[in-house]
Every structure is written in structure tokens, then in C-alpha cells.
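During the reporting period, our protein records have gained a C-alpha cell line. One record among many is quoted in full directly below:
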Amino acid sequence: MEYGPGVINLDSFIGQKVKLRRSSLGITQVELGEKLGVSFQQIQKYENGKNRISASTLFQISTILGVSFSYFVNGYAKGAALRDNEDVSYQVHDDRESILLLNYFSKIEDPDLRRQILDLVEKIASLSENN
């Protein structure tokens, strides 16, 4: 796979994944910056792909946001064919929706209702696969 001009910027991709995870947890740029020892402006630059995130900083971010280090690069190869100016948020929206679904589902205490919801989701997913 070629990674050259016209290929989506990995720094932007990682930055969008940081922003997605941070916002899904309800953590502000200020809060993340304080935990990392940097300004919120620096967090903005990371999230916009303007500044590259070092491996050690990315590891700290992964710990703070409760995800694996690899979370931030998963899916990049699929997006490598995109142009630099294209938005990759559509690629990571599944993560946001999955997180929201999991958060809401975890609040349901009734085991029977949880089972019914799982059955419903399974049926809908199988219908989607067949179409």
C-alpha cells in the first residue's frame, strides 16, 4: 500500500480518534490537557492533526482515555486511499455509536430486557447482512 501525496494524514486520523474518544467520555480539552501537562490549545492541535503526537504522549492519552495504544491507528489502512482534505470522521463514527450504545445498554439493569434488546439487535444485524 502506498502512503504518499494525496493519502490521508496519519496525524489527522489519530487526532480525530483522540477527539472522538475524549468527547465520548465527556472529557474536555482542558481536562485532558491538565492530565497530560499541556494546554488545551495543544490538545486542539493534536486533534486537528496540526501537531504530531509522540509515541509516549499517545501512550499517556490511551491510558487516560481507557483504550489500547493501537485504538488510535486501527482503521488507518482502510482510510489510506482518501485524500488529505477529506474528513475521516465517517470512518470512526461507528466507534462513537458503539460507545454510546454500550453506555446506554450498561444502564439497563433488567436481565430480561437486556436479553430482548440483544435479540432485537441480532435480528436487525442479520437483516442488514442479507441486504
Summary: The CA atoms of residues 63 and 69 lie 8 Å apart.
